[in-house]
């Protein structure tokens, strides 16, 4: 149909408490001032010696060599089908990230052939650096967290081992958990969540120590914290998450996913982790965007200049224009015009640059990865209330038609991303 009308228990003893530095006010601050307010680390500069090499964990299997520092790569989430390595090279990116759902499919099918893992292994073989996140989708499956010692936990760990057999020593970074606090049943997002993930982490650490006693190329991080910009997203369980990372020398840090409505909100994420992580620990940001801001404007009327230029009824809504682009991809110029003429988007055209500056100025960013292509799930069920993830990616392959063999792009993101590779 056309959318333009005619007239989405700690297993190793009690946790220490992460002691945050004093919080700083963030609202009303932007640019460099926001970075200073949100990220100024107290009690812990970046833990690198003059060679840029992080201290090694003292137990077996610890990685050696130069640790990543301030890198920007691409993320395909669970679906790499629209991403080609030539597209990644065109962005001058060196890092590729995806996640694997830890479901029972992995019990009967070779993990190395699962699409995310297979594509990351191919990326590794093609000279890219790789990040794999282990996603435990308990919420989607409607299942409770397994308890330590249960048959269910044994099954989970066996599944983890099958994946580790395929990826350990090959992936550059493995994160234990994807978005744990969003992928667990609501009433289990407490110490029970910590117990499960800490037990899995200890198991992964033990696997690496056993199979790579003389060192392993895979660095370990804990999965992402979400909603840290909201008061109910900062809980005893998130404090324990950071505390666990701090006391485990085998863990290099943790991940964050600041999908927010403003840079100020992202600053809250960054301040939270940087002020709590110990010296020597870093953070990843394997997903980040302004999707909450885009969502607030899906019901806005189309810009008058756009309506006039493309003969669209003036009461057409933003979500309807995007729906039309999904149904019949636009020429590149029209997609660029739509975004440039929309104040809610154009006023944030430097978002990617500003967000990376915030991350990097902490001195604690290991790698950030940004959405690379518009995947199928972004357009499925498109409507007025669908979360507009489709506005985030670098390539607009589902809303812009190919022209002269060239894949469509969201030009402002594409150009900013490439510029950030040299900054």
Write the SSE topology.
Blueprint: H1 31-39, E1 71-75, H2 85-90, E2 95-101, H3 105-108, H4 115-125, E3 129-135, H5 138-141, H6 151-167, E4 173-176, H7 191-211, E5 219-225, H8 236-247, E6 251-256, H9 263-276, E7 282-285, H10 291-296, H11 304-309, H12 318-327, H13 332-340, H14 343-346, H15 351-361, E8 365-371, H16 376-379, H17 411-421
Parallel strand pairs: 1-2, 1-8, 2-3, 3-4, 4-5, 5-6, 6-7, 7-8
Helix pairs in contact: 1-9, 1-15, 6-7, 7-8, 9-15
List the defining traits of the structure above.
single chain; 423 residues; alpha/beta; 17 helices; 8 strands; 11% strand; globular
Can you offer a commentary on this structure?
- The structure is a single chain.
- The longest helix has 21 residues, at 191-211.
- Helix 1 runs parallel beside helix 9 and helix 1 runs parallel beside helix 15 (351-361).
- Helices cover 38% and strands 11% of the residues.
- The protein has an eight-stranded parallel beta barrel, surrounded by six helices.
- The chain has helices spanning 31-39, 85-90, 105-108, 115-125, 138-141, 151-167, 191-211, 236-247, 263-276, 291-296, 304-309, 318-327, 332-340, 343-346, 351-361, 376-379, 411-421, and strands at 71-75, 95-101, 129-135, 173-176, 219-225, 251-256, 282-285, 365-371.
- It is α/β, with parallel strands linked by helices.
- It is globular and about 65 Å long.
């Amino acid at each position: 149909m056309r959318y333009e009308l005619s007239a989405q228990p700690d297993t190793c003893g009690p946790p220490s408490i992460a002691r945050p530095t004093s919080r700083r006010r963030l609202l009303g601050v932007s640019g460099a001032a926001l970075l200073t307010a949100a990220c100024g680390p107290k009690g812990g500069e970046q833990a690198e010696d003059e060679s840029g090499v992080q201290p090694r964990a003292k137990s077996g299997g610890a990685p050696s060599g130069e640790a990543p520092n301030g890198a920007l790569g691409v993320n395909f989430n669970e679906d790499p089908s629209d991403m080609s390595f030539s597209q990644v090279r065109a962005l001058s990116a060196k890092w590729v990230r995806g996640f694997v759902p830890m479901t029972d499919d992995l019990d009967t099918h070779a993990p190395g052939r699962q699409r995310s893992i297979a594509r990351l292994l191919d990326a590794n073989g093609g000279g890219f650096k790789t990040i794999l996140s282990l996603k435990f989708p308990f919420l989607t499956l409607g299942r409770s967290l397994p308890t330590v010692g249960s048959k269910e936990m044994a099954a989970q760990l066996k599944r983890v081992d099958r994946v580790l057999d395929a990826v350990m020593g090959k992936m550059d970074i493995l994160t234990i958990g994807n978005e744990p606090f969003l992928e667990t049943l609501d009433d289990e997002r407490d110490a029970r969540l910590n117990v499960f993930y800490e037990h899995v982490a200890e198991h992964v650490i033990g696997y690496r120590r056993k199979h790579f006693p003389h060192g392993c190329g895979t660095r370990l991080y804990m999965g992402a914290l979400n909603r840290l910009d909201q008061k109910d997203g900062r809980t005893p369980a998130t404090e324990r998450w950071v505390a666990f990372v701090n006391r485990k020398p085998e863990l290099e840090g943790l991940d964050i996913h600041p999908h927010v409505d403003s840079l100020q909100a992202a600053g809250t994420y960054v301040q939270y982790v940087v002020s709590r992580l110990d010296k020597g620990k870093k953070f990843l940001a394997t997903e980040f965007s302004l999707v909450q801001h885009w969502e607030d404007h899906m019901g806005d009327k189309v810009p008058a200049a756009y309506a006039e230029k493309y003969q669209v009824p003036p009461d057409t809504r933003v979500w309807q224009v995007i729906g039309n682009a999904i149904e019949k991809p636009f020429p590149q110029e029209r997609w660029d015009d739509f975004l440039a003429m929309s104040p809610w988007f154009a006023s944030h055209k430097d978002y990617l640059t500003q967000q990376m500056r915030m991350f990097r100025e902490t001195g604690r960013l290991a790698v950030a990865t940004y959405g690379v292509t518009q995947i199928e799930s972004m357009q499925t069920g498109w409507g007025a209330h669908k979360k507009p993830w489709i506005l985030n990616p670098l390539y607009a392959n589902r809303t812009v038609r190919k022209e002269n063999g060239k894949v469509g792009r969201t030009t402002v993101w594409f150009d900013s991303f490439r510029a950030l590779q040299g900054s």
